[in-house]
Amino acid sequence: MNKAVIGLQWGDEGKGKIVDYLSEDYDLVVRYQGGNNAGHTVIVDDNTYKLNLIPSGVIRGKICFLGQGVVLDPNHFYNEYNQISKKIKNPKVFLSSNISLILDYHKHLDRINERILNTKNKIGTTSKGIGPAYQDKVGRKSIKLHDLKSKEVIQEKLKSIKKFYDPILESFDESKINIDQTVHDLFIFYELVKELIIDNSLVKKEFKDKKILFEGAQGALLDLDHGSYPFVTSSNTVSSNIVIGSAFQVDYQTVGIFKAYATRVGNGPFPSELFDNVGEYIAEKGLEIGTVTKRKRRCGWLDLVSLKYSCEINQVKELCMTKADVLNNLSEIKVCKSYNKMKYDEVNFNESNILESLSLDDKDFEVFPSWGEIKNLSNFETLPENLKKFILYIENYLNIPIKIISLGPERSQTIIR
Ligand code: GDP
Ligand code: IMO
Ligand code: MG
């Protein structure tokens, strides 16, 4: 059965590590949304891999495919491809010809968008041009990979893009669009990567009968339609976007992945956020620094209310929990089980202001005693009793089995139940 690994929180749940782990049993690993706003760290033996666009299956030499739901920054892709080529011999990476490109003006517009918002309303984007690139896709202006075959086509598209955006760019003192330079750069890029580009009409034929692992980027609570809008990313991160963004109309089972606590980079509501020493401790011990922007991640307790919602919108059938090892030596570990006694289905995750105004009290948390150090990672049974109780409580609350438990960044620090 094909599988999808989908983040259930605000991203950085450990998707890269788990996709690498699971990809052993798959032929093809596919991204279907997002761009280089994603940052996935995978550690195998003494090697650390930092990936933004290329699926983590590349580490095991699997075929990797970026579907048309991805937005692709040519420079970034080329550098990442070169970097990974130094570590992995002949990486097998393919790009849908229908992918929309991120160009420099998208990054300038991303900055402008943030500048015009007052402090309270700033999204805190990764500044990679993601929102403006998706805006152009929806606005039917995007330059697609297949356009790069013809200088005339790129030139013609850029002419109207320039008319549309130059007045805005100019009024905010950002560089105007340079058509000649952009055409020149894109043409060079095309010559370098054209062997990797594949038409959607060929995708299904080319990858027929392959066992597919879909790699989500970001997380369910950053989904454009289901997340805490407007503090979201500009793509649909939920599993149902797989069919739209990947060109594969196939069945798959969703593995929902979450950390044993919660983090968020950027702004927006975070009901179980910690503002004390415990939050600081988790950030430090969990190395909670953004891979892409190097920003400190906000930390809080695991929020089962939003997790349950994320499981539903992604039709999650099995779970993966990561990073409980970060909580090892805390004297008590909490999980949020209610929002001021409201039932979770009364909470509208699209309404950021409602979530923002929640202030949780003791009754909203279940408290677990410390489980100390984890000495034996061989299987679930050998884990400390208090950790097992924590895991069983979460399973019971969500009514979904936790089949994968990750207790360290290394590929080998993983338990399958
Ligand atoms: P992704 O965006 O979902 O792929 O997650 P990131 O790679 O951005 O962030 C997860 C971080 O936690 C990475 O630095 C991983 O190496 C690390 N990590 C993954 N799983 C575990 C785990 O179980 N325990 C610990 N301590 N670190 C982990
Ligand atoms: P991975 O795949 C965590 C956040 C940004 C910001 C919001 C919008 O590593 O889990 P954008 O640049 O997408 O317009 O920013 O979304 N964000 C992420 N946070 N992990 C990610 O990806 C993220 N990708 C975007 O911090 O709050
Ligand atoms: Mg990440």
Give a structural overview:
31% of the residues lie in helices and 19% in strands. The protein is of the alpha/beta class. The chain folds into 3 domains: 3-99 and 195-246, Adenylosuccinate Synthetase, Chain A, domain 1 (3-Layer(aba) Sandwich), CATH 3.40.440; 101-193, Adenylosuccinate Synthetase, subunit A, domain 2 (Orthogonal Bundle), CATH 1.10.300.10; 257-416, Adenylosuccinate Synthetase, subunit A, domain 3 (Adenylosuccinate Synthetase, Chain A, domain 3), CATH 3.90.170.10. The chain has a 10-stranded mixed beta sheet with strand order 9-7-5-2-10-1-11-14-17-18, sandwiched between helices. It has a 4-stranded mixed beta sheet with strand order 12-13-15-16. Strand 17 (402-406) and strand 18 form a beta hairpin. Helix 3 packs across helix 4 (130-138) and helix 5 packs across helix 6. The longest helix is centred in the middle third of the chain and has 21 residues, at 151-171. It is globular. The chain binds guanosine-5'-diphosphate, 6-O-phosphoryl inosine monophosphate (IMO) and magnesium ion. The site of 6-O-phosphoryl inosine monophosphate has 23 residues, from helix 4.
